[in-house]
């Protein structure tokens, strides 16, 4: 197990959500320097509200793999509709 | 001659001289040159004999939101900057035009060449380093498509490619979309961003570029006896073309009219202009005919003149054949450098402003007119012009000739 994986495994749900926020901001093209946490409510829709299109979803999957050291199936991601669902999915695979 | 009038109601540009139309126009009037030593080590690395270019005055990332630029090629970025400026300038940001009646035509000479090169470098690392947005970042219709998406242009989005005539050809297609009834409003222009080693090397090998590395400011000098090639530039220009009645109904400000358009091909040589210049002369005549104009209506020609030995002489010959020496000529590339596929659009903006303000900018760096040119060329200072029509010419590798006839509002 790499250092990154061991560290990821100990992350709290809150920390996972924070990392996810950063990743989604990167792939949807929102300036990471601009903080608007209200955008990332659990019921925020990935496609419609957060502008994560199909190409951004490819980047999202790869970023999750790099950041959390897990294997992510893009098909699993594509059925997720909200930021909350994405958070729960990542929690389930890293813990 | 069409019965449908096409007017110009908005203009936008980002050029080596300035990040907008007003700044570019003032710099042209002042006779300033944007050419400078390239601020990168690759000219040294590749031992290029040309180390000068006309880079953008304002980076596109300064004018666009982070999310708009992150997955766009630089050529797409400059197209967006110019188009959004033009759209705002026309007062169309309020949703007053139906997307189904809105069109976009944005041409380019090379398209998204920088991303093509950088993504190929990424692939050498590994497949995963190639971004999922690679294809829309390298496709040649990308600049037009991004503008079309931003403006919701559902009447049609097109991307003509005719090398250095692309921006002018975009205006031809834009006018034809309006005349045919396909659209009420068309944003038309050109974009280019290819100051890269391989493009420079290609033009160097073709012996097209100025090697005046020790004096970059004076390297681009159209019609001058000392000219020795063009200086590569980058940027974009966009004009909002509008059906005359539509513009009048919404009370739009009108800069001028795109009265006549014409294009043809030399079919002579893949890069060299036909020394007989029949195609260029016929394009001018056809644009006048298309606009219901006579040669005596024309007081000004905004020339393509790139500062090459042969091209400037051939073009001067075509202008003399079309107008004798009765027109006042200027060549903006002395200041701008050669914006390739964007030049026709940016220089059309200058042509429209010359009619609008009744003044023709000087040809920057022209201090001694080549006797072979035989034209009245504006030099050293701006000149007044009072006739109602002006021609903008653009030519491109591949034999493309485009002539646009503009008239006052």
Q: What features would you describe in this structure?
A:
- The complex is a heterodimer of chains A (95) and B (409).
- Chain A is mainly alpha-helical.
- Chain A is built from five helices and no strands.
- In chain A, helix 2 (13-28) crosses helix 3 and helix 2 crosses helix 5.
- Residues 1-8 of chain A have low confidence and may be disordered.
- Chain B has 409 residues and is of the alpha/beta class.
- Chain B contains 14 helices and 15 strands.
- Chain B is globular and about 60 Å long.
- Classes of the chains: A mainly alpha (95), B alpha/beta (409).
- At the A-B interface, helix 3 of A face helix 3 of B.
Top keywords for this entry?
heterodimer; A: 95 residues; mainly alpha; globular; disordered N terminus; B: 409 residues; alpha/beta; eleven-stranded mixed β-sheet; two-stranded antiparallel ribbon; 14 helices; 15 strands; 19% strand
Shape of chain B: globular
Structural class of chain A: mainly alpha
Alpha-beta content class of chain B: alpha/beta
Strand content of chain B: 15-25%
Largest interface: A-B, 10 and 11 residues
């Amino acid at each position: 197990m790499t250092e990154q994986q061991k560290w990821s495994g100990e992350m709290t749900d809150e920390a996972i959500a924070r990392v996810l926020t950063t990743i989604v901001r990167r792939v949807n093209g929102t300036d990471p320097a601009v903080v608007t946490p209200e955008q990332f409510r659990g019921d925020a829709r990935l496609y419609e509200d957060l502008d994560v299109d199909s190409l951004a979803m490819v980047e999202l999957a790869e970023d999750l793999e790099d950041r959390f050291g897990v294997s992510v199936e893009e098909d699993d991601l594509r059925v997720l509709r909200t930021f909350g669902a994405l958070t729960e999915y990542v929690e389930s695979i890293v813990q | 001659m069409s019965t449908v009038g096409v007017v110009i109601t908005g203009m936008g540009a980002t050029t080596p001289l300035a990040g907008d139309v007003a700044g570019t126009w003032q710099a042209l009037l002042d006779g300033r040159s944007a050419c400078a030593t390239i601020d990168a080590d690759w000219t040294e690395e590749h031992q290029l004999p040309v180390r000068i270019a006309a880079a953008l005055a304002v980076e596109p990332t300064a004018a666009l939101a982070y999310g708009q630029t992150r997955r766009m090629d630089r050529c797409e970025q400059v197209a967006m900057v110019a188009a959004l400026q033009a759209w705002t300038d026309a007062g169309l940001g309020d949703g007053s035009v139906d997307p189904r009646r809105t069109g976009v035509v944005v041409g380019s000479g090379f398209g998204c060449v920088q991303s093509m090169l950088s993504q190929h470098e990424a692939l050498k690392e590994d497949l995963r380093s190639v971004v999922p947005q690679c294809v829309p970042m390298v496709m040649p219709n990308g600049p037009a498509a991004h503008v079309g998406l931003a403006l919701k242009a559902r009447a049609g989005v097109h991307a003509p490619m005719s090398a250095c005539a692309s921006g002018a050809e975009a205006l031809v297609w834009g006018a034809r979309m309006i005349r045919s009834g396909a659209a009420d409003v068309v944003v038309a222009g050109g974009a280019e961003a290819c100051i890269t080693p391989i493009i420079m090397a290609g033009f160097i090998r073709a012996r097209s570029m100025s090697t005046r590395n020790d004096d970059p400011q004076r390297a681009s000098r159209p019609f001058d006896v000392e000219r020795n090639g063009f200086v590569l530039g980058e940027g974009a220009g966009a004009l909002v073309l509008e059906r005359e009645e539509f513009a009048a109904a919404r009370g739009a400000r009108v800069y001028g009219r795109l009265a006549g358009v014409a294009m043809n091909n030399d079919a002579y040589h893949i890069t060299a202009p036909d020394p007989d210049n029949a195609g260029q002369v016929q394009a001018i005549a056809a644009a006048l005919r298309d606009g219901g104009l006579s040669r005596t209506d024309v007081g000004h020609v905004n020339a393509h003149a790139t500062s090459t030995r042969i091209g400037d002489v051939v073009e001067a010959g075509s202008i003399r054949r079309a107008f004798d020496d009765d027109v006042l000529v200027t060549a903006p590339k002395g200041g701008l450098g050669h914006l390739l596929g964007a030049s026709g659009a940016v220089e059309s903006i200058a042509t429209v402003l010359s009619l609008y303000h009744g003044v023709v900018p000087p040809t920057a760096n022209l201090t001694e007119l080549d006797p072979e040119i035989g034209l009245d060329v504006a030099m050293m200072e701006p000149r007044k012009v009072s006739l109602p029509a002006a021609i903008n010419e653009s030519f491109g590798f591949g034999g493309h000739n485009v002539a646009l006839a503009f008239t006052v509002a």
